[in-house]
Amino acid sequence: MASPRYFAFTERDGQEFIFELTNEERIAEALDIISGKEQSKIHVMGRIKKRQASYNPKWSYHLDPDTISFFAMAIEVCDANMDYVEDHLDEACGAFLPGCFWCPWSSKVTREVTL
């Protein structure tokens, strides 16, 4: 397990979401997306945890670092924008975002974050 590193993704509306990675392979993939080396699997997916993380204070939820991966295409049932997840967090992990799995289609890893 690597030392934690932090990255941001944005959505079409420009909002930013910070996430933590501790897996060397995922860290390398995130860096490839930022550099432009990876141009297909640029979207972020993972399981949400319904509590705020210190590195992502704007949101009442965060992504579990152990579940994060990157994708080119995903099923519709896990797609939602950040605001919608925030506004419907009490419904998440049931019919909305089954299994707490979130895959915002418009997400794109944009930068590494220094805390």
The averaged pLDDT comes out at 96
What percent of the residues sit in helical stretches (DSSP H or I)?
10-25%
Q: Please, how many helices?
A: 2
Q: Measure the end-to-end span.
A: 19 Å
What low-confidence regions span 5 or more consecutive residues with pLDDT below 50? none
The number of distinct structural domains comes to 1
Determine the structural class based on helices, strands and strand pairing: alpha+beta
Question: What's the helix-strand series?
Answer: EEHEEEHEEEE
Q: List how many beta strands DSSP finds.
A: 9
Describe the structure in your own words:
- Pfam families: BP74_N.
- It comes from Stigmatella aurantiaca (strain DW4/3-1).
- Residues 4-114 form the BP74 N-terminal domain.
- InterPro entries: BP74_N (IPR056422), cAMP-inducible_BP74-like (IPR053344).
- The protein is an alpha+beta fold.
- It has one domain.
- Helix content is 16%, strand content 32%.
- It is built from 2 helices and 9 strands, in the order E-E-H-E-E-E-H-E-E-E-E.
- The chain starts with a strand and ends with a strand.
